[in-house]
Amino acid sequence: LSFDVMYSSQSAKEFDFHVRWPGVKLLTSLLKQQGPQVQQIILVSPMGVSRLMDLLADSREVIRNDGVLLLQQLTKSNAAIQKIVAFENAFERLLDIVTEEGNSDGGIVVEDCLLLLQNLLKNNNSNQNFFKEGSYIQRMKPWFEVGDDNCGWSAQKVTNLHLMLQLVRVLVSPTNPPGATTSCQKAMFHCGLLQQLCTILMATGVPADILTETINTVSEVIRGCQMNQDYFASVNAPSNPPRPAIVVLLMSMVNERQPFVLRCAVLYCFQCFLYKNHKGQGEIVSTLLPSTIDATGSSVSAGQLLCGGLFSTDSLSNWCAAVALAHALQENAALKEQLLRVQLATSIGNPPVSLLQQCTNILSQGDKIDRRLTGQIAENLGEEEQLVQGLCALLLGISIYYNDNSLENYRKIGRENFVEKLGFISKHELYSRAAQKPQPGFSSPEHMMFDHEFTKLVKELEGVISKAIYKSSEEDKKEEEVKKTLEQHDNIVTHYKKVIREQDQELEELKQQVSTLKSQNEQLQVTVTQQVSQIQQHKDQYNLLKVQLGKDTQHHNSHGDTLQMNGIQLEEVSKLREELEDWRNRHEQLQGQLKEKDAVIENLKSLQVEVGTEQSSQPSSSGGVEHSAELQKNTAIDPALGASSAVASRSSEKEGRLLQELGELQSEVKALSEEKASLQQQLDSSSSTVAILQDEKSKLQQEVAEAKKEQDDLLVLLADQDQKLSALRSKLKDLGMPVEDEDDIESGDQADEDEDGDEEEQD
Prior knowledge:
The protein is mainly α. Helix content is 73%, strand content 1%. Among the domains are: 238-289 and 301-365, Leucine-rich Repeat Variant, CATH 1.25.10.10; 367-476, Leucine-rich Repeat Variant, CATH 1.25.10.10. The chain has helices at 2-13, 17-33, 35-44, 48-53, 61-74, 79-87, 90-100, 108-121, 125-133, 155-171, 178-190, 193-202, 208-222, 226-234, 245-253, 260-274, 278-286, 302-310, 315-328, 333-339, 355-364, 369-378, 386-401, 415-422, 429-434, 452-469, 473-549, 553-560, 570-616, 624-734, 744-762, and strands at 236-237, 243-244, 343-344, 353-354. It has a two-stranded antiparallel ribbon. A two-stranded antiparallel ribbon has the order 3-4. The radius of gyration is 61 Å and the shape is elongated. The two termini are 104 Å apart.
């Protein structure tokens, strides 16, 4: 009713002061008493929020200022109204009021505007993005301009500056979405806001609470942003000689005379500087290494300050330095190894000890560490000692979980007791507080127990340690049996690996032999092919020669299929063919000559017979007439006899010559027969060589087949063993035991490749 009356009065009396101002106060009071109900009424009223936003533009300051208070109550815990107010140009109007009132030097109005801005931006990602996109971050820079003389700040200025720093932290809070936080961090760097904050950080005369909040603000502006972290690392304090801001802050952290909240803020700043900053982590750890320590002692490094605080008599310095060093190693395995090189000089005359050894000495407090850990866990102590028992159980559990069984595995604590003590950590109230946010939020040194990152580590390790510890004796027994079986199978596999390795060597040698024999066989095959071709040619020639010489066809056919010739080249075949042709022609000529000469001899023989007959038929006389007649007859016959004698003489010469030539022809025929026999012998030798090569080839193929069969049997046996081994390894993994992988598959693959290679060569 009051809400409606106020607006009706506004319309009728033109925003009459005496009606408007009481209406604002009444609505503010209603929001304080019945906030959610009134918020819902205003939210559903047409133009309700918009008309209330008009209060910020009222020329009467008292109504404007009360309007700011009204909007504070209206925007509490209501994201919908916050968005409407932001889009009604609230940021622009509020920042104008802050500027008009003098920024941090302004009065209570500035404080009210800053509180309203916090309501609009805190936990409201949409409004935060709108604020950044509207370039309102740049308008915050003048808020943090301070002069050289910072003494005598008013309480209102301190309050205003404190709220301004908190407003910056709202925009870069670690609880915001990472993308939104990063974009705001970059905008603050580019507009110079981070640089202005670092100026306050190194300024003198700044009140302690403002300095503390400034350190916290700078921490979150640089957290996880490499560009801002690099800038912060380059900031130097205005001292002579200049010192890095990080070193100056660490000096305050390990100084027990500094306020507790300031030391916590410095620790938070150091943690934020190292968060996701591997470069910064490396620079801090490098100041601890022997090669980078300043031997002159003219300057102190961050690493030296941390080591000094780690072994200080002040317990708060111990805690802060230990946590800071832990953050220097966070998610950086390489730096953990580097830190093991750190050597510390504990006292004059004593040799240096490692940093890890010194921490262990402090933990054990000069007593046996085994009794101090295990003793704390085993005892039943009061509630005040339960947290210490839990921490001891965690440390012992880490040692057990990462034990590689190189040390004796023994237990003096029951499993149930151990797991119960380990659970004391996560059940502690201080653990729950530290797990909520990264900033250390301790009200007093007595509550300084857990670091935020440490709580994440405890949560991660608690489950795996419990799983590693909480095993029954039956599981241990089964595990031992499986281990023994696995060892036996490992021995079998090792034996067969050796056998296979030896057989691989033998197989390789056989492969080389087969390759050599294969090459020889190919050469012999080529030779045999050539010889078969030559033999076929010579068979044809022999058949022709056999027909021409009139030899026994049946005899030659019985041996013709088996005749082979070895070593006779094509030129020799052509030459032999020509010689055979010549001999055939000569043979034909000689046959013709023999026939002619036989005919002449026959003629001569018949002529001689006729002459002898005529002489024997003539009568003999002793008278002169007869003698005269005989003389005349002889005289008449002499020419015929002379002619006959001459013919006989020539015939004898021809006959002798023919007989001589016939003998020569017979000798040549005999030589041809011998040459033919020699060729026959060479052919028989070639056939024998081919038969021997075929026999050797068959033997080699049989040896390769036997070797392949033997290897197949071994591979089948090895595959069976591998299958059993895989089953056993799976059982071990199901039981939670670590199982190292072996090169079994690689050996099997190599054997398969060799086998495939043999098959290809045999094919």
